[in-house]
Amino acid sequence: LIRESIAQELKSSVMEVTESFSITEHLETVFAQAFAIAFPEYGNVPVIIAPVNSASAKYGDYQCNNAMGLAKKMKEMGVNKTPREIANELLKACPASPIINKLEVGGAGFVNVFLSKDYAAKALQNILRSGIKPPRVPKQRVLVDFSSPNIAKQMHVGHLRSTIIGESISRLLEFLQHDVIRINHIGDWGTQFGMLIAHLEDRFPDFLNVSPPIGDLQSFYKESKKRFDTDEEFKKRAYNRVVSLQNGEANSRKAWTLICDVSRKEFQTIYDRLDITVKERGESFYQSHMLSVVDFLRKKNMLEEDEGRQIMWSDEGKSGVPLTIVKSDGGFTYDTSDMAAIRHRIDEEQCTWIIYVVDSGQSTHFNTIFKAAERCGILNPTIHRVNHVQFGVVLGEDGKKFKTRSGDTVKLSDLLNEGMKRSLEQLSSRGRDKILTPDELIEAQEAVAYGCIKYSDLSHNRISDYVFSFDKMLDDRGNTAVYLLYTYTRICSISRKLSEDVSNLKTILDTVEIVLDHEKEWKLAKTLLKIHDILLKCSKDLFLHFLCEFCFEVCAVFTEFYDSCYCIKKNKDGEIVEVNYSRILMCEATAAVLRQCFYILGLKPVSKL
Ligand code: ARG
């Protein structure tokens, strides 16, 4: 009786979420119920569900792998049962689920799950009717700190990685219905502004009335640094300017704004080209918060004097490196601004999840900040989640740090221009410049250029260093944006061949049901329905290469399907003699799944390429 009611409950919960649930999570619930019924005394064992490699489809689509471990555990408790016996008991205790067609015990004691084609067809039809619905997760207020270049310095490839990864993480979490705040924590504060302002006063005394023509802010920075290091009088004045800037003195403030504007414009052109949305809230924003966090830490007895500095240890045992909260000259540091920022994000922004997309070189810094924030009571790990989403360095094709031939840091705008040039060459080599209209060509060129730069970054495990190579990213055979974009346009072109307009799928959906009889149709359906699992997997540890691998798999499986299943049959004269509308629907569902993934990865799908 209990089993029946559980089965009923499950059934209704499945019906309700058919449009948007993770198959793995659903099977975990099914097997957790089975555990509770068959082995109540081992009820809290975590259920292990794994998808079965499609090459072994005869063993099912997913399997529950718990029996082997459980047999061992039972043996320790003096109960002798073989894994196969256990698997059989689990199987019998499984409540009915509309997504399961049959269960079988196989091998050493796996419970093999065969998915229901009925359910799969319905789920795909749902996708076509109402789009891909996000899997349900508890909603959080998340702040993503990404991009974060520094004023007057070059925005380099490290910032490019942060920008690309941060944008995609934001898109992913937004799709999962989180409340996402995207923050650009620009380095716009600190002692270097003293020398920049002092130098500006000397070079452009008229700066209050006439906007100074500082196109090349980096050389301006270098000049001022040189004077700062060699000229004592200048150095003194620079220190003065820092103080007046922090006190809000009008002229220094104006000079600072002018300098920041130059960088800001440069950053914005990069963001516009790459379709990046991020709100600027630089270090300067936290000036008053730094004053109050210092106060807060002092009251909590967290600060310790060290050769004139005020430092804070992140743990009482004083291990690791302490944070420098106040310098001996009274100034604040990168540490101070991050302590102020985390406090603001938790207390005022009410975030329960904060994500820092910053290179691996800063992992000690962030670990110390997180521990210190916990120690002084800003962060409560049972409520707040913090992640340093770290990434490796970008290497050139020679395996060394990415540099120009002359050894300088690569300017991002030059890099994007080079991408545009190479992308046009790629398209021309396929004769696309002759087929596409000028507008279509530009659209394609941008989609390929920016898409390949983003995708080659996202498709590698972000923790490792990665080699930046236009040749590799523009290869149309590997796991590249070019390959995905071409496959997508190929799918779009299929329904374009039909004489009728299928852009309104509703009419077809009302009269045609998806049929999954052919082995390749079934394989494609099962692949597409993994999307919810994959999105959850990506959000768990914030790794986007899983989504890239999934796109690659979808394209490969689609190609297998298209090679062996006709969608449109033509006669010798090229006239359409038969259309398989179920398969047309499969093509459209594939396109819908890819579009959703492309959006998260920042790829622009073009219908002609
Ligand atoms: N501006 C810093 C840099 O270029 C990155 C800032 C990252 N965010 C933060 N909250 N510390 O290295």
Automatic annotation (TrEMBL):
GO-annotated biological processes: arginyl-tRNA aminoacylation
Membership in a protein family: Belongs to the class-I aminoacyl-tRNA synthetase family.
Domain DALR anticodon binding: 484-609
Subcellular compartments: Cytoplasm, Cytosol
NCBIfam families per the UniProt record, alphabetical: argS
Reactions catalysed according to its record: tRNA(Arg) + L-arginine + ATP = L-arginyl-tRNA(Arg) + AMP + diphosphate
Taxonomic source organism: Drosophila guanche
MF GO annotations: arginine-tRNA ligase activity; ATP binding
Domain of life: Eukaryota
GO cellular component terms, A-Z: aminoacyl-tRNA synthetase multienzyme complex; cytosol
E.C. code: 6.1.1.19
InterPro entries to which the protein is assigned, alphabetical: aa-tRNA-synth_I_CS, Arg-tRNA-ligase, Arg-tRNA-synth_N, Arg-tRNA-synth_N_sf, ArgRS_core, DALR_anticod-bd, Rossmann-like_a/b/a_fold, tRNAsynth_Ia_anticodon-bd
Protein name: Probable arginine--tRNA ligase, cytoplasmic
